[in-house]
Amino acid sequence: MSTTLPARASVWAGFVALAIAMGIGRFAFTPILPLMQGDQGLALSQGGWLASANYLGYFAGALSASFLHWNAATLLRVGLFVVALTTALMGWTNTWSSWIAWRSIAGMASAWVLVATASLCLARLSAMGRSDQAGWVFSGVGSGIAVAGLVCWFADLRGISSWQTWQILGALAAVAMLATIPLWKVSVTTPSHHEAQPRSHRSGFRRLIVCYGVFGFGYILPATFLPAQAKALLDNNAVFGLAWPLFGLTAALTTIVSVALLRRLSLRQLWLLAQLVMAVGVVIPAIAPGLTGIIVAAVCVGGTFMVITMLGMQQAQVSAGPRARTLMANMTAAFAAGQLAGPVVFSLLNEHFGGTLESSLYLACGILLAGCVLLVQPFPKYVAKPA
Known about the structure:
It is a single chain. The protein is an all-alpha fold. It has a single domain (8-187, 198-374), classed as MFS general substrate transporter like domains (Growth Hormone, Chain: A). The protein contains 15 helices and no strands. The protein is globular and about 60 Å long.
C-alpha cells in the first residue's frame, strides 16, 4: 500500500469523491425532478422509471465492482468521470430513452466510486491508526446531497431550466474531481493467492451481506414516499425546496457525530442502535400521520442511513482485511437489491392485496427489526497470517 498520502489528504479526497458520486450521481435526481416536470413535461410515472433505472445501474455497478480487474484507484477515476459526463448529458439530450440510459450508467458509476473510495480510504486510515476519521469521509455523501439540493433550489427560484441545472451539476462534478487526485495513485495490497477463510468467517460474511441488504429494503420506502407526502402537506416550493438540503446536512452531521459514539460502542453495536432508530422513523408516519410524523421520520431515517452505510463499510474492512473490496461490493449489491425490492413489494401489495403505504411501512419496520436480531452476534475479525 502506498504510504505517501497523509491522512488529511485521504479524508478530503474521499469526502469529495463521495459527494460527487452519491450527492450528484445518485441523489441529484430527487430535487431536480420537479423542475423536469415543469419544463420538460416529465410525467410522475416516467420519473419513477428514471429513479428505478438509477437503482438498477447501482446494483449492476456493485456486482461488477467485485470482479472487474481494475484496481481501486482506476475504478475511482473511471467512476467519477462517468458520473460527471452522464450528469451533463442529462442536460444535453431531451429524450426519455436517453435519460434512462444516462441515469442507469450514473448509478453504475456511483457504486464503483463508493466501493473504491471506501476500500482506499478505510484501508489507508486503518493503516495509519486514524480510523476515527472515517466519519469525515462519509459525511461527503450528505454534503453532496445538500449542495445538489441547494443548486436545484436556487435554480427553481431563479427560473433556471432543468437542462441547464443538469449541466451546472455536471460541470460542478467535473471541477470537483480535481480534489480527488490524491487518491488516483493510492494502491491497496491484495493477497497474491486465495486464502481459505474459516467456516465461521464465511458465515459471518454472509450474515453481514444480509444485514446490509435488509438495511437497503427498510430505508427505501420512506426515502421514496416521504417527499411526496411532505409536498402534499406543505405546498410551498420555496420552503419545500430546502427539505432536501436539510436532509443531506443531517446525514453529514450524524456521520461526524457517530465518531464520538464509536469511542464507547463497537461498529456492530452502533449499527444496531442506528437501525433501531431507523425502524422507529420508518413506522412513525403510519402511527402518527401528518407533518410532525413526517419530520420525525425524516430526522430518524436521514440521520441514520449514512451512519449505517459508513459502519457497514468499516465492518467489511475489519472483517475482511485486504479482501474488503470484494466484501464491500457484495454488500453494496445486497443493499441495491433490497432498495429495488422495496418499491416492487409495495406495488404488489397495493395492486393484489389492497395494501396501503402504512401497511408497507409496518412491513419495512418489521424487516429492519429482524435485521437487528442478526446484528446481536459479533462479526468475524480479520487476522493476518504470519509471513
